Amino acid sequence: MSETINKTVKLRYFAWVRERIGKPEEDVELPAGVATIADLVAWLTARGEEYAYAFENPKVIRAAIDRAHVKPQASIGNATEIAFFPPMTGG
Amino acid sequence: MSETINKTVKLRYFAWVRERIGKPEEDVELPAGVATIADLVAWLTARGEEYAYAFENPKVIRAAIDRAHVKPQASIGNATEIAFFPPMTGG
Amino acid sequence: MSAQTTVRIQREPFDVAVEAAKITSGRTDAGAVVTFTGICRGEENGVPIAALTLEHYPGMAEAEIESHVADAAARWPLIGATVIHRFGRIAPGEDIMMVATVSTHRAAAFAAADFLMDYLKTRAPFWKQVEKTDGKIWVEAKAEDDTAAERWTLPGKDAAAE
Amino acid sequence: MSAQTTVRIQREPFDVAVEAAKITSGRTDAGAVVTFTGICRGEENGVPIAALTLEHYPGMAEAEIESHVADAAARWPLIGATVIHRFGRIAPGEDIMMVATVSTHRAAAFAAADFLMDYLKTRAPFWKQVEKTDGKIWVEAKAEDDTAAERWTLPGKDAAAE
Q1: Which of B24, C53, D119, D139 could crosslink D128 through cysteines, CB 3.0-4.6 Å?
Q2: Using CA atoms, how far apart are residues C9 and C98, in angstroms rounded to an integer?
């Protein structure tokens, strides 16, 4: 898949990340240059204060690509769904 | 208690120690000189072939004095009940 | 011989004894059953709790737990393993989640249940919100849970993505 | 606040779920329940087992288990711990014994149940005899059980009298 074509990705937010952003999910067009999860967090943070608030401490934010845990440096590649959430507290 | 007076002690046997000796319990008069569990095992071993069979491998025999686990060198003291049995296999 | 594994994410309560019996039923080699049940407490540090609400990531929760159950079955000789995790509002005294592991001998059953719990705490996409009399707050993750999960990381194996 | 402990040696079957519920009932601080159930297997290395017969040392069995339950309650913050061990003839598929531990958090409940099982295996005066088609044989103690029990021995603490 060409990197020059903008991709549509579904973003999903959980727990207080969802509350701070104010919605559970949204479809976004990823601009060229947003190649990793860390890039995506930086791009979202610049989109508005609700995003800046949700990602104010990026170190505590966890991410999943297509329902699998990933690290911030993970490549977005052909992801169709990317999720952001706080550290998990199930069990 | 004077060590020169013979003491009566109840002996109890379990599992294959019981089967080899052929009885679950007996009262015995301990002669002077039988001061420890190891002494008692040696004395019983000399009493007859059923005891010699039960204690043929003294290292695997466990003992309890008044219902508490003890080592072979434990002093019999004023024990009222001494038990011999194989390694435990409960649980 | 593969382990009989079950993973369910549900709103409804469950019955630990029934779930454990499903694994052992008809198995002549089952010698050891370990179960863990997590219960909603009625207080936290002396402060009363009205309820917990569990949010989860549908689809990922099942997949993540299934992968850890498969991991456990690969590491220990299990006859079976069941994990059930509830979501939604849960009142004090109600069960939140359960793990049941069955093996021929106890060591495998204990280790697998302990392993699954450590991973569920740090890797399963669930988030607890506590309702107290003065409002709702999200439960914070505990550093000790990460430390517990790290016990199981094999040298050379890819560490958990955090 | 002392732990609620129960030790029973009995011929009759027991119900693990009922016993665990007795500990958690009315406790708002109970967050974690671990149970272990030992089951009579129907085979051993592929050879069918007709039944197990458990012999025990009445009086000492209770005292020994009670002392280990008290030890567990001193080492971990337990809300309660129950140990039930059956004796007599037990058929394949029937429960032999159980341990249930309850705590506020899972680490204590898991550690205490694991500890109790290790000690029961090597220190509780019970002996298993297996009935196979070709006769009865006493189960031999396993070296791995002694090794498991030694995990819990604290340096400087009097080691188990063997």
Answers
A1: D139
A2: 11
CB pair distance less than 8 Å for C127 and A74? no
* pLDDT beyond 70 at C1: no
D78 in contact with chain C, both atoms CB, cutoff 8 A: no
Q: What phi, psi does B21 have (nearest 5°)?
A: -75, -25
Q: For residue range D33-49, list pLDDT tens digits in order.
A: 999 999 999 998 888 99
pTM of the model: 0.92
Structure-token pair, residue D62: 């209770």
Query: Which structure tokens are listed for C16?
Result: 């630990």
Beta strands B81-85 and B7-13, pairing class:
parallel
Q: In this predicted complex, what is the ipTM?
A: 0.91
∠ CA D33-D119-B67 to the nearest 5 degrees?
Answer: 125
Mean pLDDT of chain D: 92
d(CA A88, CA B71) in angstroms, rounded, equals 51
- Burial of residue B58 (CB within 10 Å: 0-12, 13-18, 19+) is middle
Q: Hey, are the CB atoms on C41 and D34 less than 8 Å from each other?
A: no
